[in-house]
Amino acid sequence: MTSARTLFAGLATLALTAFTAPAAMAQDALKIGSYPANPPWEFKNEAGDFEGFEVDIVNEIASRLGTTTEIEGYDFRALFVASASGRVDAVISSLTITAERLESQSFTQPYFSGALGVGVKDGTEIASLEDLEGKRIGSIATSFPESWLQEREAELGYASYSSYDTTANMLTDLRSGRIEAAVNDIVGLRYAFTQPNMEGLSVTVEIPTGDQFAIMMPKDSENLEAFNDAISEMKTDGTMAALYEKWFGVAAAADSLTLTPMPIPTSAD
């Protein structure tokens, strides 16, 4: 009888282990890639920890999925390789959904409709897109702003274009006069220009583009649907609205992408 009990207990333990193993695996931290100098979307604080609007979003998603995140910083261009290769589970960095990116990556539903801004030194006579003609301009390598500018090179007539690996380097060159205008996400530029070492810089042109920001993931990721469902829940239960107001200081419009649940995108429209 003792042997039978022992055998039964052993089998029960084995069965319990088999049934609980997937749950344990589900608790593994999500590996998140991020560009570490992109406030207020994501940035490192003085303690070296990531903060920002999208950091809060992905941490909330992880919490709803019963896990946590491990966020690692990458150069902007390296983010796409990290996602395509499966080195990370997801990428946050105010990333625009584009048709080209959808060929090799997947995206969650968008939660922000972006616009570009033209940043200049105070006193520079650039107050419209027409004023970029003959000017030295710059943006971030492989970014949506870079593609937008290069597609309109003939139309805008700028004198030269400089491509940067980091926002810090781009703004350093703007301050020193190596470039006369920096074109980037308008929210990020305005936030950067409020920092103590950025006096004398301002955004003089806003360019509505309708580009949509979302979380990028490896193509057809097994986590894609769960991420998207979590974002829909956050939009409907008030969480996304609270995060938006926390980081941008204003309420999101009721009909905005920030508050409207949407399906997983299959095109950039």
UniProtKB/TrEMBL annotation:
It holds the Pfam family SBP_bac_3. Residues 29-251 form the Solute-binding protein family 3/N-terminal domain. Residues 1-26 form the signal peptide. Transmembrane segments: none annotated. The keyword Signal applies. It is found in: Cell envelope. Keywords: Signal. Its main location: other. Residues 29-250 form the Ionotropic glutamate receptor C-terminal domain. Belongs to the bacterial solute-binding protein 3 family. This is ABC transporter substrate-binding protein.
